[in-house]
Amino acid sequence: MEKAIIGKKVGMSQIFDTDGKVIPVTVIEAGPCVVVQKKTAEKDGYEAVQLGYEDVPERKLTKPEKGHLDKAGVSPKKHLKEFKLKKAAEMNVGDVVKADAFAAGDHVDVTGISKGHGYAGVVKRHGAHTLKATHGTGPVARHAGSMGSGTDPSRIFKGKIGAGHMGVDQVTIMNLDVVKVDPELNMIVVRGAVPGPKGGLVTIRSTAKTIIEKKGDAGISANPQKASARVNPQKASARR
Hints:
Layout: E1 4-16, E2 22-30, E3 33-39, H1 41-44, E4 48-55, H2 63-72, E5 77-83, E6 96-97, E7 107-113, E8 118-120, H3 122-126, E9 164-166, E10 170-182, E11 187-191, E12 201-206, H4 236-239
Antiparallel strand pairs: 1-2, 1-12, 2-11, 3-4, 3-6, 4-5, 7-10, 7-12, 8-9, 10-11
């Protein structure tokens, strides 16, 4: 079943699996979220639900926001996010989505806003090479360098790497697996890193990737027509 929830990034840690291997994980405080609005195919042309997350004082809402939440009979919420879900028709306004909607072993996509780095140079922003830091370079070791011919085309093409604003972009990390879920603490622990700073808002939903289950190790085929069944007598490994 396709699932989605809104939460906050608590931070990174590490846990040990049953084999004693270290797993780097990110702890996310997910939910509880309330269904604020329901979109239907008959009325809106598609099926989706809007989730509300984190209580906020009523004075911090605009009148349209307050009216929207009052219509749904929901307490003031700070964050609203719409999710297109295949099972949206089965959900109703007022339903609560908690962390236990997910379970260990689920594969999810986590979306957040990356950390901001301000106005950054081309070396930091794009990983461009620096010039030699010896004689003759001058104070331009971290500059972008030549941009191309001046006569033709006499301009810089769009997409050319350069200095500029770095970070604060929406980033989605796909196909992370859920390692642990704690319903009492509203915690979802996923393997690996997710975008954003500590306390940053993130959304978790079932992955859009196609999960291929791993099968057993391939053995030697009994079919004499297959190469894996034929043994080359010229090889030393076959003569033993």
